[in-house]
Amino acid sequence: MSLVLYSSSESDNEERASTDESKNDRVRLFPHEEGNWALSIYAFVDCSSHMDTMIDDLLEIFNEKQEIWKRLGELHLSLSKTFPIRFLHIESIRKSLQDELTTSMNRFATHIENVTILNNEDSSTSFLVFTVDQHRQISRLVEIVDKILKEHRYPCYYKNPCFHVSFAYSTANNRQEKLPLDWQEKCQSIFKQYQCQPSSMMIPIDDICLKAGKHRMAFRFRIPNIGFRKRMSWFDFTVACVVGVLAGIYTFKPGLQQAKDEIERREALKEIQARRKAEMEQGSL
């Protein structure tokens, strides 16, 4: 499989460039200028113990003959490009994000679908990534971020993005030729082994982070409540109601039958008492 030329992994590139630049391991996407800060916006991904083990198993596939892929320390789902920003604009963007996200977004979850390989913008680095479900809430997040960045005259995210989580990178020469021929089949086999562990495949999205230089600011989403029903489709809402009613009937069926039997018993008792009263009145005549 040929490498996909897609550059939304550049936030990983910029993050590691600052730490590995002295080793010539990674290359900056833009030169450092006094007064400019590298800014990126992303959703933090909490790596569960099962996901951590799954990543180790996947890396064994790609590093079977030679260790050319290195694991990334922190996992995240990018919602913006990484770009230089003037320091005086950071607070304005932070406030706009806080105002928008804390009032309009609820927590949600997406799930891992596949493993693929993406390149950064100048093809100097390749990434092993989890592609994730193209959840409508992720698209909504990107729309909010794009709107704010556009208002501040900064670049928006890519059109028709492939939402993903990078977990390893490589700068080795001829890394494409060194890929195992059956790596896709082996990755699918690993996925099947971990499907019984939901925490290895599910990615909760509870907040997003704004990173400017080495400073990070988090914006936590609301916990979903009954108001979330308004954003559900009528079909989903109807199905949820039917399932709830059926579950309630099944759960309380013994109690309903007992109540029905009690009502029938009382009606029968009333009927017997009415007959006796009528017989007594007829006898007195």
TrEMBL record:
Q: Which spans does this entry mark as compositional bias, Polar residues?
A: 1-10
Catalytic activity reads: a 3'-end uridylyl-uridine-RNA = a 3'-end 2',3'-cyclophospho-uridine-RNA + uridine
Q: Which InterPro entries match?
A: PIGBOS1 (IPR057394), Usb1 (IPR027521)
List every stretch annotated Disordered.
1-25
Determine if Transferase is one of this entry's keywords.
Answer: no
Q: Where are the transmembrane segments?
A: 232-252
- Name a GO CC annotation attached to this entry: nucleus
Q: Which domain of life is it from?
A: Eukaryota
Record GO biological process = U6 snRNA 3'-end processing
Task: Cite a single Pfam family from the UniProt record.
Answer: PIGBOS1
Keyword Glycoprotein present in the record's keywords: the answer is no
Give any GO molecular function from the UniProt entry.
3'-5'-RNA exonuclease activity
Q: Where does this protein have compositionally biased stretches of type Basic and acidic residues? A: 14-25
* Alphabetized UniProt keyword annotations: Hydrolase, Lyase, Membrane, Nuclease, Nucleus, Transmembrane, Transmembrane helix
What is the name attached to this protein's record?
U6 snRNA phosphodiesterase 1
Q: Which organism is it from?
A: Adineta ricciae
Q: What is the lineage of its organism?
A: Eukaryota, Metazoa, Spiralia, Gnathifera, Rotifera
